[in-house]
Specification:
Elements lengths: L1 H39 L2 H16 L1 H30 L4 H34 L4 H4 L4 H29 L12 H7 L3 H36 L4 H30 L1
Length: 261
């Protein structure tokens, strides 16, 4: 019992020290930023931000075009590799199957990662053009058209990826157009696959929770010193609340099912 109590005391002491250290570092950084802004009256930072935004706006059209072209080329390469791997799985023996199964998972992950980066990158780049001045620009219509092509292609690629996996693994179920697709897909997985999904999901939850805490602090400081607005703070805060509530609700429901059995 004494050892357990000592461990608890040590853990609380370490946590307290880390929180105190974080508060001190935050205070130093905040004070330093406040001094710099007071010296420059914020003019140099505002001018630099305006120049950066103006420069990015001039690059939105070629930037989106580059993202779309590179995305299509990259995703088609990964899809072709994945298709070859899936075709090889049908004739693979037990020794080759595990290696090909790993390559299938890895290539599919790279395909979906490039798909997501294309989609998010396009949105972030287009967001810099959210102004009436840019909408009256001669290339605004072309920019929006390229963005729609990029988003449409990314959506179609996701459907192609799922259909390829379902063709290779007929036991996999799920309608891509359905809102319950993920649930349908999970129900068709075997226990080993579910274990991988569960462990990966928990790692994603843990990492995302840490990232959201950091982003919440970052958005608060940016609003304090650069007047970026409270919307970013609200979005990050609400996202963190939804993440925690969803996790806690799932834990309670699973415990309830276990008790009812």
């Amino acid at each position: 019992m004494k050892n357990k109590d000592n461990l608890k005391t040590t853990s609380l002491s370490k946590l307290t020290l880390k929180m105190a250290a974080g508060a001190i570092v935050g205070a130093i950084l905040g004070a330093s930023a406040a001094v710099l802004l007071s010296i420059n009256n914020g003019n140099s930072f505002n001018q630099a931000a305006q120049k950066l935004i103006s420069g990015i706006q001039n690059m939105i059209f070629p930037g989106l075009l580059l993202i779309t072209v590179l995305s299509i080329i990259l995703q088609e390469i990964y899809y072709s590799r994945l298709k070859n791997i899936c075709n090889s799985l049908a004739d693979a023996d037990d020794e080759e199957f595990d290696e090909l199964d790993y390559k299938e998972e890895k290539t599919g992950a790279m395909l979906m990662t490039s798909n997501l980066l294309s989609y998010i990158g396009g949105i972030v780049l287009l967001a810099f053009g959210y102004s009436m001045d840019y909408l009256h620009h001669s290339i605004a219509l072309g920019t929006c058209l390229i963005f729609l092509i990029c988003v449409f292609y990314d959506g179609i690629m996701q459907a192609r990826y799922i259909k390829l996996l379902q063709k290779t693994h007929p036991e996999k179920k799920g309608d891509v157009s359905s809102m319950k697709f993920q649930q349908q897909w999970l129900e068709s997985c075997d226990e080993a696959e579910k274990e991988v999904i569960y462990q990966s999901a928990y790692k994603a939850f843990s990492f995302t929770s840490k990232c959201l805490s950091f982003l919440l602090l970052l958005t608060m400081l940016s609003h304090l010193f650069f007047h970026t607005g409270v919307l970013a703070i609200l979005v990050v805060g609400i996202t963190q609340i939804i993440l925690a509530l969803t996790y806690n609700r799932s834990c309670v429901e699973l415990k309830k099912v276990k008790v009812e059995r």
